[in-house]
Structure formats: structure tokens, C-alpha cells
Amino acid sequence: MAIAATLKDIAKSVGVSLATVSRVLNYDRTLSVSESTRKQIFEVAEELNYTKLKHRTATPSKQLKIAIVQWYSKTKELDDLYYMSIRLGLEKRCEERRILATRTFQNDLQAIDPDVDAIIAIGKFSDAQVEAMSQLTPNLVFVDQDQLCHGYDSVVTDFRFAVTQVLDFYAKHGHQEVGLLYGSEWTTDGQLEVVDPRYKAFRREMEARGTYNPKLVFGGDYTNHSGYQEMQTAIAQLGDDLPSAFFITNDPMAAGALKALHENNIDVPQRVSLFSFNDTTIAKYVFPELSSVHVNTELLGATAVDLVENRLQTGRTTPQLVTVGTELKLRESTKG
């Protein structure tokens, strides 16, 4: 579907102008629009990325009840569409399977039905938070965090191979020095700092190639503003030594970095190429469009539901770790 047509579809569905949709998807904070409208625009945009369900399975004799625990707040979820996309994929699979799904944000476990059959937890959680959820049900599935060592089903992305693919692409096109903008954050109880696995993979791979340069690495917090600030810092500190390519570990940060480059009259991709990660909706709505590692968020969410069904239907107690692969989506922010 063409981007212009998609924008029109979003505008029509939400009941706002085409310009409003475009500005919201580009994180234009100067636009006066309500949070509810902003949320609706992002949700409709993500919905349009999913294939409509063609088949429905038979309704089970007992309707399963699943609680979705999202570690982000409703507002923060809009700042990083990755987790919202996973949730939407999960909810679609539940709808397909006639499973009753309820959601709670920021680990509000008090809101969970005590008779729930399983919990699917999206995001990052400390040991204490995992223990609290296990008191409600032994049937836990984690999406985007490997909890296999604690005995729980987990669905994760293959970060290491994806980062290697990006660096191989850059090397093939003559970019030997590559900068990195990455994020870090804490679980909502402040007990666990979550270091970006893409940073770990990037450093390991670049050190193996003998090209790792810590002066080209900048840490933020995954937000659009953080990407903008860190790129401004990189431009100021590195000057003419600014590398010809950057890998940025999520789309909001990449969009912010792109804005900083524009403001400093640094051409993308002629002077600096950008490669992002997650390939959420915003990657296609900035200019130039962002090359990004595509993560099949719909599949991540759907797989979590499948694991719940398998565990409940078969009585399986052995935990499973499912790793979902990625693919590179090349767009205008990179040369090649």
C-alpha cells in the first residue's frame, strides 16, 4: 500500500487531517493534539501493517483467560511503538482463538483477574516482579526477555545476527567506522538495569573486526528526544571525524538523530547513512525513510499466545525459548 494512501486511510479512520497524521507520526511535539488522538493515530497506523485474519480456529470448550502485562505506561508505549506492536499482534491472536485477553500497564498486578489462566508479560521485569506474577499463575510467558533459566517460556528476537547483518551491509558499502546510538533503561521497580542487547552485539562484533571505537558510541534512553540529543553531542564532539554511518537501536531514536543531522545541514545518506532497528511505522514516515531491521512484532505476540495454548492443552512443563529472526529493510537513509 502506498504511503500517501495509508496516510489518507489513517486520517479518515481517526477523523483528522492528513497533515495532522503526518506530524504526529513524525513526533512533532509542537502540534497541539490530545493524547487520545495521538494514541489512536499510532494504533490505526500499526493496525494497517497487519494482514487481516483469514481463518479462525474452533472455539475451545472453555474460554481461556490471559492477562497481558505491559511494562510500559500507556503514554510511554506511544514513544516506542515496538511494544505496542507486540501487544496488538498478541491481541489479534487472542481474538482469532477466541481467548479473552485483558491488559494492564506498568505491572499493575492488582488489576489482574485472580482466575486468569496465564500471564503474558511484554518487556523487562526484575526477579521480584517475576516472582509476584508467578504467585498469580504458574503459566507465564515473557516476550522480549529471556526467562528460560527461571523456568518460563520466552519469545525473543535474534539481536546478534541482526546487528551482524547491518555491519556486514555497511562494510560491503565501504563504511569501516560505524557509530552507535543505543539505549538503556530500568525495570519499573528500579531493581534491574537493562542494557541494550544490540549494544552488546555491536561491541562484540566490532571488536572481532578490530574496528570498535568507544568514541563513536553514545548512550541514551530509547526516546526520540534522546536520539536527537545524542546525535547533537556526536556532531559537536566529533566534528569532521563524524563517521559516515550510524547504527541506531530503535526507530524513535533514529528519527531524533535524523532531525539533528538535518538541523546541522548534514546530508543523509550522502554524508551519513543511518540504519535503525525494529522497523515500526515511523521508519516509513520520516524523511528520508529509514533503513531498519524489521522485527516481526506480530509474530512475537502470536507466538506467545501459541505457547500458552500448548502448555495448557498438553500439560507441558518444560520451558521453551523461541527466537524470531529478522530481516533488513533498505530504504533511503542508506546508500547501496
Describe the structure in brief.
This protein is α/β, with parallel strands linked by helices.
Descriptive terms for the model:
single chain, 336 residues, alpha/beta, 434 Repressor (Amino-terminal Domain), Rossmann fold, 3 domains, seven-stranded mixed β-sheet, six-stranded parallel β-sheet, 11 helices
| Succession of helices and strands | HHHEHHEEHEEHEEHEHEHEEHEE
- What is the second-level CATH architecture of the largest domain? 3-Layer(aba) Sandwich
Superfamily at the CATH H level of the largest domain? Response regulator
CATH class of the largest domain: Alpha Beta
Radius of gyration: 20 Å
| Total domains | 3
Helical fraction: 40-55%
Mean pLDDT: 90
Sheet-strand content, in percent, reads 15-25%
**Can you summarize the main beta sheet?**
7 strands, mixed
Strand segment count? 13
Low-confidence stretches: 50-60
Distance between the termini: 24 Å
CATH fold field value of the largest domain: Rossmann fold
Quaternary state of the chains:
single chain
| Number of DSSP helical runs | 11
Structural category is alpha/beta
Describe the protein in words.
- By secondary structure, this protein is of the alpha/beta class.
- It has three domains: 3-47, 434 Repressor (Amino-terminal Domain); 65-156 and 297-324, Response regulator (Rossmann fold), CATH 3.40.50; 159-295, Response regulator (Rossmann fold, 3-Layer(aba) Sandwich), CATH 3.40.50.
- It is 40% helix and 19% strand.
- The protein has eleven helices and 13 strands.
- Strands 6, 7, 8, 9, 10, 11 and 13 form a seven-stranded mixed β-sheet that branches.
- The longest helix has 18 residues, at 297-314.
- It is globular.
